[in-house]
Amino acid sequence: MNRMPSPEPMPLCQLPAGATGRVCSLTGDIHFCQRVREMGFGESSCVTKVSGTTTILCQVSGTRIALSHAAASHILVEPLVQK
Amino acid sequence: MALPTHISSGPPASPSRQPVYALVGNPNCGKSTLFNALTGLKQKVGNYPGVTVEKKVGTAYSQHGQPITVIDLPGTYSLAARSPDEAVTRDVLLGRRADTSTPDRILCIVDATNLERNLYLVHQVLDLGRPVILVLNMMDLAARAGLNVRAARLEKELGIPVIACEAVHGRGLIELKLAMSRPDLPLARHAWDIPAAIAPAVGELQASLIAHDRKAPLLARAEALLLLTDQDSVRVAGSSPLSSRTAELLRAWQERWSAAGTDWAGTLVSSRYDAIGQIAAQVVLRDGTVGPSASDRIDSVATHPFWGWAVLGTVMTLLFLSIFTLAEGPMNWIDAHIASLADAVKTALPPGDLRDLITDGAIAGVGGVIIFLPQILILFFFIGLLESTGYMARAAFIMDRLMSRVGLNGKSFIPMLSSYACAIPGIMATRTIEDPKDRLVTILVAPLMSCSARLPVYLLMIAALVPGDRVPLPTKVGIMILMYALGTFGAFFFAWLFKRTLLKGAPPLMIMELPPYRLPRLKDVAQHMVERGWLFVRRAGTVILGISIILWFLSAYPKAPEGTPPTQQLAQSFAGQAGHALEPLIKPIGFDWQIGIGLITSFAAREVFVSTMSVVFNVETTDDDTTPLRQALLAAKWPDGRPLFTPLVCFTLMIFYVFAMQCMSTIAVVKRETNGWKWPIFQTCYMTGTAWILSFVVYQSGRALGF
Questions:
Q1: Is residue A71 within 8 angstroms of chain B, CB to CB?
Q2: Domain for residue B457, yes or no?
Q3: What is the pTM of this model?
Q4: Is the CB of residue B602 less than 8 Å from the CB of residue B453?
Q5: B400 to chain A: which residues are within 8 Å by CB?
Q6: What's the pLDDT score for residue A7?
Q7: By the CB < 8 Å criterion, does B143 face chain A?
Q8: Rounded mean pLDDT, B401-409
Q9: Of B74, B404, B581, B628, whose CA is between 20 and 30 Å from B26?
């Protein structure tokens, strides 16, 4: 599987269900950013959005994580195109 | 800055003291299962005074039969604690707790299916400079997920013992106990290089912590790293505030980095993850051909925007349906035995105060409550099933949308769900909530969720409201669901209100892990159910028995002249006088002085209302046969002959119990958790005030509509 990064970063909440993105930056409250990093959402980690529009369900390194919409909007990802 | 390289640590400092192991790990990695497997039946569960979540201390035995103390600590993702429960773990490991022995050694348990994320905490624990044994748990699940986690390779990379384990099946325990028995354990080899931009600060802070804060050298280094991981140094320092010199030094470094645009906190985390990534690449081999897991398939339904709600609704309906249907046989059995016991006492003893005390006080009071034991057991069995399968977190996920509307998040829903069983563990569970205001709001509304102690009141009132077999089961289940829904929506309403008035704050950003589904371990569920059931029986045998005896005395004395009707006797008794004093306040909501006695006594615990009714209405009867309580209630009348327990009054009484704060134990726990009387007093007033107002509205509206 070959993945090519797309140039357009978007908030995780806008990533389509089933798509995978690479975290490129975290915004907002610094304590939230730090906790998110410690839970494996650090910059350059890959995240797959499973489902959800208001509360988001995603998969990060084998773990299923639920994020509120506001939390997901602070995680900017660049979608990875699967070829 | 390197950790000490591969040296061995000897046994604990004092040879006479039994070694102390701390058990740490991420949430949901199987810590408690391992703790129970290690300590067997000898573990004790204890609350530590004044602080955070429950932690467990138990005794395990090494392969050579030597006792070992094991402390099971709350799960955490990082030693940079954000919530009160995580602070317990940090403080015990850093030796800050006066009431807990500083652990000699640490058992780090990790979930093998998610090694990288779990190794982050391990990495921080290795910084503490204590001997660590790494337990690779859930190896079976990792294999099923197509992961080959090579324990030997990990051991070589970290330089500490690594034990592959399946705690749930007891596999790997012998190897673990052998490792725990070793007199000397190797310390971890050099784990990572602190980034060059941060390293000088770590060195200076470590030196200052040793010189000015009297920290041991290795702990000082770990504390320095924590101060540089969490931006809130006051939170990191916890109960041992930093010296002014160290605080000043930290501030100077932070200002220097801010001026240079260095994201120091992020850099440390990224650097650790880089080191962990390199280890994981050596240790974990992935089989890319494995498809979606069973958890994925279940989640596609259980967390679906529509089907998720349908599943939640079905689960709740099944719960209440089984409470009514499955419990009927055992309840009839208990009822029959209580009645025959009372009749046997009445036959054996001559008429008099002693006989009345035993039959009308003790047996009627305790029996009136104990009859609900089967239904309590079913409730706890279902809650145990939900907890052990992993569905609780999914329920919180589904509820998050609703919770966010009231200004809380799904994380607050887990304590609220636990409160369906009992508000006390629910309030304790709020310690996992990071934001203090959100935690307080959750504490304030959690007792509105209908707990198991309300169940006997609801069941008695439903029996009186819809007597006999005329009313179909769905109506009874429907009324029960309505009561639970009222409490839940009440909790949401007050959370919304408090978040907009008293405890204003931005909606919290929720991030919550959903554990994989697991088959419930029926043995554990049954054990939990029996423990909770036993607590209920014990309370019936102690508090409720005591109150019933006192109440009987208060209702039997002062004695009226010979020949006075029983109703007159009760009315002029001490209990009757108290009920009469309360009556002006409760008459507008349809309750008389006899119900008033129940409201007063059930302030101790809600189910005492049922035992009180048993005592009050048994005192009134003149016949020698024991009358079922439901019939006694239906026969009760106002002085003008109107029936007392009309369907409207029964319904109003249920509404009152949904909202009123009738539990001394909950008040005591809220006082402890909020460090003062302000919030428990506020909570009691707002809940009981709401109960009265709603009861008034329901009763008066019902009367106006002709009910």
A1: yes
A2: no
A3: 0.78
A4: no
A5: 54-55, 66, 68
A6: 59
A7: no
A8: 82
A9: B404
The per-residue DSSP string of B199-256 comes to: HHHHHHHHHHHHHHS---HHHHHHHHHHHTT-S-HHHHHTTSPPPHHHHHHHHHHHHH
| Average pLDDT of span A54-77 | 87
Q: What is the ipTM of this complex?
A: 0.89
Domain holding A77: CATH number? 2.30.30.90
To the nearest 10°, report the CA torsion of B590, B594, B596, B599.
Answer: -110
Closest approach of B405 to chain A, Cα-based (Å): 11
A30 CA to chain B: closest CA distance, Å? Answer: 8
Range of the domain at A67: 3-82
CB contact under 8 A, B265 and A32: no
Q: Is the pLDDT of residue B190 over 50?
A: yes
Residues in chain A: 83
CA nearest to A36 within chain B: B511
- B468 pLDDT tier (thresholds 50, 70, 90): low
- Co-location of B590 and B559 in the same domain: yes
Q: Name the band, by pLDDT with cuts 50, 70 and 90, for residue B654.
A: very high
pLDDT digits (tens, 9 = 90+) for A18-42: 899 999 988 888 888 888 888 888 8
| Amino acid code (one letter) for B323 | I
Across the interface, whether the CB atoms of A70 and B80 are under 8 A apart is answered no
Chain B's closest residue to A73, CA to CA, is B509
The count of domains in chain B is: 3
Any CB–CB contact under 8 A between B404 and chain A?
yes
**Subunit contact B404:A55, Cβ cutoff 8 A:** yes
Tell whether B29 and B177 lie within a shared domain.
yes
On whether both B172 and B216 belong to a single domain, the answer is no
- B690: closest CA of chain A, how far (Å): 31
Please identify which residue in the block is written with the tokens 């402390």. B71
The pLDDT value given to residue B51: 28
pLDDT digits (tens, 9 = 90+) for B121-152: 999 999 888 899 999 998 988 888 888 999 99
| Residue B696 contacts A, CB cutoff 8 Å | no
DSSP classification of residue B95:
T
DSSP state letters, B160-215: S-EEE-BGGGTBTHHHHHHHHH-S-EEPPPP--PPPTTTHHHHHHHHHHHHHHS--
The pLDDT tens digits of the residues spanning B330-369 come to: 888 988 888 889 889 888 888 888 888 888 778 877 887 7
Helix (H) or strand (E) holding B698: helix B678-704
CB contact under 8 A, B507 and A68: yes
**CB contact B518 to A (< 8 Å):** no
Cα(B393)–Cα(B25) distance, rounded to whole angstroms? 19
CB pairs under 8 A between A and B: 121
Contact between chains at B410 and A34 (C-beta distance less than 8 A):
no
Same domain for B589 and B679? yes
